[in-house]
Design brief:
The longest helix is centred in the last third of the chain and has 29 residues. This protein is mainly α. The chain is built from three helices and no strands. It starts with a helix and ends in a 13-residue tail after the last helix. It has one domain.
């Protein structure tokens, strides 16, 4: 499973647990959702650190791969990758 999917499901799961814990409390539903959102964000900062780091690494690798592909395409379009352009035959 993708690190981004794991982290997202973890965040949603923590939010759902927080909402379920606040459900019997006598508060406005909007206030319950806001408290659950803040609580789940704070808890996920500590509990989901590993998954967040995996996701960040995956995003960084993907960005680097896209940057390399873009540079390779630019050089190919500029004619720098064509054989024989450096003065050699072959």
């Amino acid at each position: 499973m993708s690190p981004a999917v794991k982290y997202t499901l973890g965040r949603v799961g923590l939010f759902a647990v927080a909402v379920a814990a606040l459900w019997p409390v006598e508060l406005n539903i909007f206030l319950k959702l806001m408290i659950a959102l803040v609580f789940s964000a704070a808890v996920s900062f500590f509990l989901l650190r590993g998954w967040r780091d995996e996701m960040a690494q995956q995003i960084a690798e993907s960005a680097e791969r896209r940057r390399a592909d873009k540079e390779r395409l630019r050089s190919a379009l500029a004619g720098e990758d064509q054989p024989g352009t450096d003065g050699t035959v072959g």
